[in-house]
Design goal:
Shape: globular
CATH superfamily of one domain: Transferase(Phosphotransferase) domain 1
Strand content: 15-25%
Bound molecules: adenosine-5'-triphosphate, magnesium ion
CATH class of one domain: Mainly Alpha
Number of strands: 9
Number of helices: 10
Order of helices and strands: HHHHHEEEHHEEHEEEEHH
Distance between the termini: 57 Å
Helix content: 40-55%
Radius of gyration: 20 Å
CATH topology of one domain: Transferase(Phosphotransferase), domain 1
Largest sheet: 5 strands, antiparallel
Structural class: alpha+beta
Length: about 260
């Protein structure tokens, strides 16, 4: 179905006025909208607007592998990030290995949408855990079905850049803080599992950990392997700043600290 057909579909007429308005607001990308979002997602966005959680969707920040991220504004004029998991194109294979083995999530989903909604909920809960662990990350605000609303990292002009795209003035400080965040997560029994300069934002010279969907608890069978990979990615990246830290030493210290505390 072409996007125009999609938008002219009968169901559209069922949308309330505010939902119609949201369409007008998000339809800056009318061409692809119908292909990317299903009817339920659109209705959901309409509901978030009519419930007063968001007032408008400003513009797309990013189109990732699994989700589209938009900047939004609340009725109180606070900026938020809205992550919308694409129900049609998200790949199952990728997410299965993270959900399986996580006791927080049940099996036997009825359909693809269920799994994706579970995944969005997982990201919300993981962000909550990051906050409990005092890890700098977007604050989760609301998760409804495949839509996650969180605090926006950036200023009015533009979202914060990724760590990989900035030149650091104080690399050692940033490195130490990221390692501290890994430690704090580990203490709270959670591993990010996809940590890299692609999933860290730098805002006002401070790192923010993002993209928490795949984070797993320590009792996940691959948690140690994920932890090693996270540390490896960070240590490797900072080599270009002449920071030569030993991965094994970091891991040892991390595990020892946790043992001593428990
Ligand atoms: N809270 C936020 N505030 C500002 N920008 C954000 C926020 N969350 C995500 N972004 C931006 O959106 C991009 C994609 O977010 P995220 O990594 O969570 O999604 P993804 O689907 O995994 O995307 P990718 O496939 O690119 O990794 C980020 O690289 C970042 O630029
Ligand atoms: Mg990402």
């Amino acid at each position: 179905m072409s996007s125009d057909e999609f938008l002219n579909d009968k169901w559209l007429k069922k949308l309330d006025r505010q939902s119609q308005m949201i369409l007008d607001r998000v339809v800056f990308n009318r061409k692809t909208f119908g292909e990317v979002f299903d009817k339920q997602t659109l209705l959901l966005l309409g509901k978030l607007i009519s419930d007063g959680l968001i007032d408008q969707i400003d513009f797309p920040i990013s189109t990732g592998k699994e989700a589209n991220i938009f900047r939004g504004t609340t009725p109180e004029k606070t900026l938020v990030a809205i992550k919308i998991y694409r129900t049609a194109t998200m790949t199952f294979k990728h997410i299965a290995s993270y959900i399986e083995g996580d006791p927080r999530f049940s099996y036997g989903y009825k359909n693809r949408r269920d799994v994706i909604e579970e995944w969005a909920k997982k990201e919300y809960k993981n962000l909550e855990l990051f906050h409990d662990a005092k890890v700098r990350a977007p604050t989760p605000i609301k998760c409804v079905r495949n839509v996650l609303v969180m605090s926006y990292i950036g200023d009015a002009a533009k979202p914060a850049p990724l760590l990989k795209d900035v030149v650091l003035h104080n690399p050692q400080k940033i490195f130490d803080e990221i390692i501290l965040f890994i430690e704090r997560m580990y203490k709270k029994k959670i591993v990010h599992a996809d940590l890299s300069p692609f999933n860290i934002l730098l805002f006002r010279q401070k790192p923010y950990i993002i993209d928490a969907g795949q984070a797993v608890l320590l009792d996940h069978p691959s948690s140690q392997e994920f932890l090693k990979r996270d540390v490896h990615n960070i240590v490797s990246y900072f080599k270009k700043y002449n920071i030569k830290e030993n991965e094994r030493k970091i891991l040892k210290k991390l595990m020892k600290k946790k043992r001593d505390e428990s």
